[in-house]
Amino acid sequence: ENSYHCVALAQAFQQDTALRQKDILGEWVPIEDPAMSSVLSLDGKWKWVRGITREEVNADLILTHKTSKRGQVLSFDLKACPAVMEEWDFAPESGPLIVDPETDLPYEAWKFRRVWRRQAPGALAAYRRGRGRDEEDALLGIVAHVGLRKLVESWRLPVVGVPPADWRRRGVGR
Fold this sequence. Notes:
The protein is an alpha+beta fold. The protein has helices spanning 2-17, 21-25, 82-87, 109-129, 140-145, 148-155, 164-167, and strands at 27-30, 46-49, 62-66, 73-77, 99-100, 105-106. 38% of the residues lie in helices and 13% in strands.
C-alpha cells in the first residue's frame, strides 16, 4: 500500500506544481559527482540529488525547490495543491519525499516508471467500476486528481488493464 501512496504523491506534485518528474523524484548519480547529498546507496557508489525533500517544505507548507534543468528557485503553496494535500499525511517526516518502500531510499527512475505502469491500470479499473477509495484502490487519488479521469473520459478508454505505454500503440484515444 505504501508504494501506492508514494506514486500518488509523486503524481500529485507533478500535477499541482508542474515540476518535472526528475525534480520530484531526484536522480541517482555517481558518488564522484560534485553535487552535495546526504543520501547514499547501500553500496556507497551512488548518491541521490535534486529531488524534493521534506526539509524544503516550511511550517506554512510552502515548498521551495531549485529545479534541475535551469537552476530556478521555485516556491509552491502546498495548501493550494489539493492532490498533494490529499496524500500529504503519507509523506515521510524527513528526507526525500518519494521513497521506494522496499528500500526506504528514493526511487530509481526506471523502477518508479515500472511501479506506476503496474498500478495505473488498477486505478483506472477501480474508477470505471465506481468503487470507493480504500486500501485496495489507494491509487484512486491519481484518477480523481491527476487527470487520468479526464483522460479516460476524453478518450473513452475501451480497455482496462492495458499499460499506459501501450495506449497509443493500440489506438486508444484516436
